Amino acid sequence: MLDGLFDSFIMLLVIMDPFGGLPIFLTLTKEYSDQRIKRSAFRAIRVSAILLFLFLIVGENVLTFFGITIFSFQVGGGLILLMLGLMYVLDVSLSNDKDYSKDIIIPMATPLIAGPGAITAIIILVN
């Protein structure tokens, strides 16, 4: 059991890549006070943990409800990761909103920490 838990932890650590998200976090919070940086970091972690926990509990049931197989979900998650990777490499943006002065919860919690790869991994690990 400990081997499975350790393997799952390592897999999620690699997929979530907390060290890769650190430069983005530092860039988004460069004009924040120390207190606001800590508050933003804790909020991003809390939101992503709630999101992953939600998918841990009901993720497979949602897929079953919509008639989606695990294999189809893996293929869809892979295609989304491919598109996101190409967008980052080619510097393509789907919106013109470059104002990062808003709260950083959305870019940090949802796509970076608890992104499609982590959600897919959680559902596959539960399966």
Descriptive overview:
This protein is mostly helical. It has one domain (2-126). The chain has 6 helices and no strands. The protein has helices at residues 2-16, 18-28, 34-66, 70-90, 105-113, 116-126. Helix 1 runs antiparallel to helix 6 (116-126) and helix 3 (34-66) crosses helix 6. The longest helix has 33 residues, at 34-66. The radius of gyration is 16 Å and the shape is globular. The model has no long low-confidence stretch (mean pLDDT 82).
Low-confidence region ranges: none
> What order do the SSEs take from the amino end to the carboxyl end, as H and E?
HHHHHH
Shape field: globular
Give the CA-CA distance, first to last residue.
15 Å
Q: How many runs of DSSP E, i.e. beta strands? A: 0
Indicate the multimeric state. single chain
The whole-number mean of residue pLDDT values reads 82
Please give the count of helices: 6
